[in-house]
């Protein structure tokens, strides 16, 4: 009977250890898959990132902060711009900024940028980046709102009174005659 108990105890210990190893392996696989998916989403849309993504992409050199080249290339590939602000609203660093960029942001400037100005046709996102022993920084990301640009083009060619689109359906041919676009299709 004593030998039987030892076999049973050894069996349950092995079962427990094997289950624990399998659980750790599965959690590791899911973590790697999740990391790969989030990296892929960030490469296509920077607004999907969270603040922890940017902590390693901001350089500090004697209390001077700057954006790393990797982050600038990512913003450039998405036709966006970045502005790094300190806690007081002063511009610390920027990449591809808009034409009119204040050197000091007030609360009103910041909220205007976030809520968007109708004339700007731009989308804005921000992240608060916290460092352990320093004041937090704010990263402001903006890019043109393509959906609004397309809507403005369509609205300009739509006549509300008649309810018709006035799109140019004729195309000039090389020999000088006009040809219908529909005939080409």
Number of helices: 6
Q: Main beta sheet, described?
A: 4 strands, antiparallel
Distance separating the two termini: 88 Å
Helix content: 40-55%
Enumerate the spans where pLDDT stays under 50 for 5 or more consecutive residues: 180-185
For this structure, the CATH topology of the largest domain is Beta-Lactamase
Beta-strand share of residues: 15-25%
Structural class: alpha+beta
Overall tally of structural domains: 3
Which architecture of the largest domain would the CATH scheme give at its second level? 2-Layer Sandwich
What number is the mean pLDDT? 79
CATH class designation of the largest domain: Alpha Beta
- Order of strands in the sheet with the most strands? 4-3-6-5
**Subunit organisation of the chains:** single chain
User: For the CA atoms, what is the radius of gyration?
Assistant: 28 Å
Tally the beta strands.
10
Shape: elongated
The helix-strand sequence is HHEEHEEHEEHEEEEH
Summarize the model shown.
The protein is α+β, with helices and mostly antiparallel strands and 185 residues long. The protein has helices at 2-44, 51-55, 69-77, 107-115, 146-156, 181-184; strands at 58-61, 64-67, 80-85, 91-95, 122-129, 137-144, 158-159, 164-165, 170-172, 178-180. It has 6 helices and 10 strands; from the N terminus they run ααββαββαββαββββα.
């Amino acid at each position: 009977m004593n030998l039987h108990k030892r076999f049973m105890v050894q069996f349950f210990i092995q079962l427990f250890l094997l289950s624990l190893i399998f659980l750790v392996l599965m959690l590791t696989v899911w973590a790697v898959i999740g990391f790969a998916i989030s990296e892929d989403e960030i490469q296509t849309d920077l607004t999907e990132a969270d603040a922890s993504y940017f902590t390693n992409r901001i350089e500090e050199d004697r209390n001077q902060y700057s954006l790393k080249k990797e982050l600038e290339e990512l913003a450039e590939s998405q036709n966006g711009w970045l502005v790094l602000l300190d806690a007081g609203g002063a511009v610390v660093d920027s990449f591809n900024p808009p034409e009119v960029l204040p050197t000091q942001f007030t609360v009103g400037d910041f909220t205007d940028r976030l809520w968007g100005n109708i004339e700007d046709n731009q989308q804005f996102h921000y992240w608060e980046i916290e460092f352990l022993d320093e004041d937090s920084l704010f990263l402001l990301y903006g890019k043109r709102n393509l959906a609004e640009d397309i809507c403005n083009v369509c609205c300009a060619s739509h006549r509300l009174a008649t309810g018709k689109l006035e799109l140019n359906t004729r195309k000039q041919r090389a020999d000088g005659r006009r040809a219908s676009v529909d005939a080409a299709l």
